[in-house]
Amino acid sequence: MNDVTERQTAPVKEKRLPLLQMLLVSFQHVLLMYGGAVAVPLIVGQAAGLSREEIAFLINADLLVAGIATLVQSMGIGPMGIRMPVMMGASFAAVSSMVVMAGMPGVGMTGIFGATIAAGLFGLLIAPFVCKIVRLFPPLVTGTVITAIGLSLFPVAVNWAGGGSGTGQFGALPYLGVAAAVLAVILLINQFMRGFWVNVSVLVGMALGYVLAGSLGMVDLSGISAAPAFQVVTPNHFGAPQFLLAPILSMCLVVVIIFVESAGMFLALGKITGQEVDPKQLRRGLLCDAGATFLAGFMNTFTHSSFAQNIGLVQMTGVRSRYVTAIAGLFLISLSLLPKAAFMVASIPAAVLGGAGIAMFGMVAATGIKILQEADIGDRRNQLLVAVSIGLGMVPVVRPEFFAHLPHWMEPITHSGIAVATISAVSLNLLFNVLGGPERHALTGANH
Length: 448
Fold this sequence. Notes:
The protein is mostly helical.
């Protein structure tokens, strides 16, 4: 039996790795999620017409809250934190709403932050009730949702591998070559090495890809000298938050969607790590999401949630320790205080991330397919549930404008393939298996 199979079938143990290995594996998590963490403040800051210095401050604020939230989610504090290897960051679910708010007269950044605070409070109030939905996620639904998560992330990896959306020569051979080199290194390490090297295979692949990309002139370090060496994020940097009804209602809807997505991702991570996610654990995880969002509004940043791409890294490396993500949270906090260091991480070319993303996001989809084997996937109605839910989940990915004529308030749902797939899978399971009677309920896999 090869090393990869051994890692996947061995019992999961909560353990602390040797210090060097722990640091390297933790830094892998930071590198993977960093692009997503800075993308939201970049988009919203540009929509609001902020200066480059103000956008840089937004990014540092996001890194700080993401680090704190990751620490809480990984280790737990009081009633918050699912105590699993989870990375947190600014959620894309709210981007479209916040871009609209940024351009509304009398709203701006302070209105966005006020809506974020109110939405966080709303999330804290509803989390104890939402956590009960765990019973609606038998293996049939969970496997479908996890597969949809992996597939919905593939366009991100492909965009990275082609050079990123900002390049004028998308798909140029140098970009494809760098992405292919990173992917090849990861695959070769997993095939021919074991232990420490497998655990840090993504980091090694990205490091070599960074060197290769630098030799091809893809690494841009211009402006690093202008960045301050040290900067502390201060609350309410842009002024006192404004609490306006329309933005608050919009952001509260976003929190509901974040909860749906997070529930699916927590259950996915539970399957990968071999831990059962019960309603109590799910409540702790959702409370952390909401608490991070509440804090974010005061600290000049936005709604926060767990990052799906890091679930793929947990599966890819086989390192399932929450201590790893806790240290990654400390890395994020450090980067928020050291703008020059954050600048260096941000200089990683998209093609380097693309090579790693193809492997890791595919692992998420493969995990979903494996979980589906626990359900009666031979049943025609269950096959239809999987087919329709994954198909609907791909709609926002393939054609984001497909739902453009639906009401604006639905955008947080219709722009999220994960949310669409989750709602479809839960609804069809209720129709086919729960309302169909006890004999149909057994086919969901819930009693396996």
